[in-house]
Amino acid sequence: LVTGPPGTEMRFNTRVWDQSLVKSDLSNAVSYVVGEAPCGRASPTLNISGGNTAVAAGTSIAYTVTVRNNDNAACQSSLFNLTALFPNGLVGTLSNQSLAIAPGASGSASLTVTSLSTLTAGTYSFSVRTENDTAPTYATSTFGTYSVARQKGRRK
């Protein structure tokens, strides 16, 4: 078994000795270069943070969307596309719709979500999805919530 970091050159010396020919000695040197490990893709990890407080309808809430590239180190950086889907009554804007992230590293984008001023009190879910632009089958989604507080002096 030959091991070493990718690109490492290993040298081996072989010697053949024929005992019937005491004076004969054949030598040969062999070189072997350890190959690059193959790129191993994996689905990214996606997280949404923020928005932990109920707010008045019409208020904007800032969230952070974090994507981790779970590809192995043999892969190059990948571009991860972000999309967000909102129910009626909510709108949102991503600061970046794609992030270039090296294997094992994370990147983040801001997401600002605002409700219509007429939205009734309650908790509303929205989703965010990311996919590897080079290999779209490696994708994941997660959910966030936006909570509208009941206004004081109003009955539901």
What is the helical fraction, as a range of percent? under 10%
Strand content: over 45%
Which word captures the global form? rod-shaped
Distance between the termini: 73 Å
Low-confidence regions: none
Going by helix content, strand content and strand pairing, the class is mainly beta
Explain what this protein looks like in three dimensions.
The chain is mostly beta strands. Helix content is 0%, strand content 52%. The protein has strands at 9-17, 25-33, 45-50, 60-68, 78-85, 90-94, 98-101, 106-115, 122-132, 139-148. The strands form 3 sheets. The protein has a 4-stranded antiparallel beta sheet with strand order 3-4-8-6, with no helix packed on it. It has a 4-stranded antiparallel beta sheet with strand order 7-5-9-10, with no helix packed on it. A two-stranded antiparallel sheet has the order 1-2. β9 and β10 (139-148) form a beta hairpin. 17% of the residues are buried. The model has no long low-confidence stretch (mean pLDDT 87).
Annotate the secondary structure layout.
Elements: E1 9-17, E2 25-33, E3 45-50, E4 60-68, E5 78-85, E6 90-94, E7 98-101, E8 106-115, E9 122-132, E10 139-148
Antiparallel strand pairs: 1-2, 3-4, 4-8, 5-7, 5-9, 6-8, 9-10
Give a brief outline of the structure:
The chain has 156 residues and is mostly beta strands. Helix content is 0%, strand content 52%. Strand 1 and strand 2 (25-33) form a beta hairpin.
Task: Sum up the structure in keywords.
156 residues, mainly beta, four-stranded antiparallel sheet, 0% helix
